[in-house]
Design goal:
alpha/beta, 12 helices, elongated
Length: about 375
């Protein structure tokens, strides 16, 4: 079996050496070369054709964002960004994910992190995941997206439709009960969320509770960026906040997000109990909390991501009461893990490519 060929890019000679050593410690990875800035990185990508690229954001001559944008248009390749835990670093990371970066790993203590080994396992994991996504890696295309409509409209056939609980869907429409959409995603999620949320109309009739696997400090920047692009409101949820229609609430990194009923209203509850499956926030914990809500119409969405977070929670939701589910089709997933787990468990009522999910959701809520 051939090794994963990686090009390491960082302006610090020390960081290039340490990152290379971390990656080379895994028998499945080979560091084929190193680059000290974005311009050299692009030249070496074209010359060496690596499987995966690690890319620092802050570099001289050409920074990581400029290099990434150029690569995505001229030589698309899975890219794992190295980011600092600052507000500016978080904003730049969100921009990198929009431009098409596969995922990111945070440097624990700034641009020169002597303790980078603390995130060594995560870096190796992300590089391996990026390599497996290469076969379906597509050139990033800027598309003008029109908002979906809540009025009846023809919907394109859903890829491999599965209807396991059609009676639930019928019962979920035409009522005056509170409505709630829950959504879980991980690797590839920021860009997928942008595709979905920007298509929802300004008067979307339900709140959307979202778990996106992301470290503390980054979810706020993600929410702010999405809010600037969407017709609905997008915010990082706060503890005790009452959930309102036409608003998407993103769980803050490092906190589990549950939805409770208080005096008939849907209210956010945040806590820092142990991670579930290595995740905090956890999709399963959000979905499980929603399964306990009574007299509420529910829709659940699972999109791109590694692992199987969300499957247990969706199963519980379906066992306790009616819920209509939409799962992202393999054709549009950056990583097919979370959607595949839900589909294999027989929990998908609708399977749709990413750009059709808003249309399917709006039709179900009509």
């Amino acid at each position: 079996m051939s090794k994963i060929r990686v090009l390491v890019t960082d302006d610090s000679a020390f960081m290039r050496k340490v990152i290379s050593d971390i990656l080379s410690s895994d028998s499945e990875i080979e560091v084929i070369d190193r680059a000290k800035n974005g311009l050299e990185c692009i030249e070496k990508c074209k010359e060496l054709a690596p499987d995966v690229l690690t890319l620092d954001i802050e570099m001289p001559i050409m920074n990581g964002l400029d290099a990434l944008e150029k690569l995505m248009h001229e030589y698309p390749i899975p890219v794992v960004m190295l980011s600092s835990l600052t507000r500016e670093g978080a904003e730049a990371t969100i921009q990198a994910l929009e431009l098409g970066a596969f995922d990111f790993v945070t440097k624990p203590s700034g641009p020169i992190s002597l303790d980078i080994h603390k995130v060594g396992d995560r870096l190796i994991e992300r590089v391996k995941a990026a390599a497996t996504s290469r076969a379906r890696f597509r050139k990033v295309e800027a598309k003008a997206i029109k908002p979906a409509s809540l009025s009846p409209a023809p919907v394109q056939p859903i890829t491999r439709p599965v209807v396991t609980s059609a009676p639930f869907i019928t019962r979920l429409t035409g009522t005056s009960k509170p409505r709630l959409v829950v959504l879980g995603t991980s690797t590839g999620g920021p860009k997928a969320l942008q595709t979905v949320l920007t298509q929802l109309p300004e008067k979307f009739p339900a709140p959307i509770a979202i778990v996106q696997h992301m470290p503390a400090g980054f979810t706020k920047s993600l929410a702010q960026r999405l809010d600037s692009l969407c017709q609905i409101r997008v915010t990082e949820v706060t503890d005790g906040e009452v959930l309102q229609p036409a608003t998407a609430y993103i769980a803050p990194g490092g906190y589990h997000f549950e939805v409770h009923q208080v005096n008939g209203r849907l209210q956010a509850h945040l806590h820092q109990q142990e991670p579930r499956g290595g995740h905090r926030p956890s999709v399963d914990i959000l979905f499980e909390s929603v399964s306990r809500l009574t007299n509420v119409d529910k829709w659940a969405i699972i999109m791109t991501g590694m692992g199987n977070d969300g499957t247990k929670g969706l199963k519980l939701m379906k066992e306790i009461g009616p819920v209509a589910s939409i799962v992202e089709d393999e054709s549009s997933c950056v990583v097919y893990g979370m959607p595949r787990a839900a589909i294999q468990a027989g929990l998908a009522d609708h399977i749709a490519p990413l750009d059709k999910i808003p249309e399917v959701l709006c039709k179900l809520l009509h």
